[in-house]
Predict the structure.
Amino acid sequence: MKDNKENKKAIVEFKRGKDVKASSFLAVAISFINAFTYFSIGIMRLSEGRDGGAVFIAGAVMLMVLGIVAGAVIQKKNEQDKEEK
């Protein structure tokens, strides 16, 4: 009976870990969409001749920051995978 309870607890913890990974991936995806939207709106406003430089720069900066963070996370994950092997 005790083993069964421990197994259920382990399963619940495993599912929680998957939920956290999925929600963090969703947050990053939404951030990329938001940054790309700012970037696109800035380009459209600049091409129309209106003042859209601030929006364009804000979108470009957000995309750069997200790219740097994503690159760092991928590099760290690769290093962890190499250490495990």
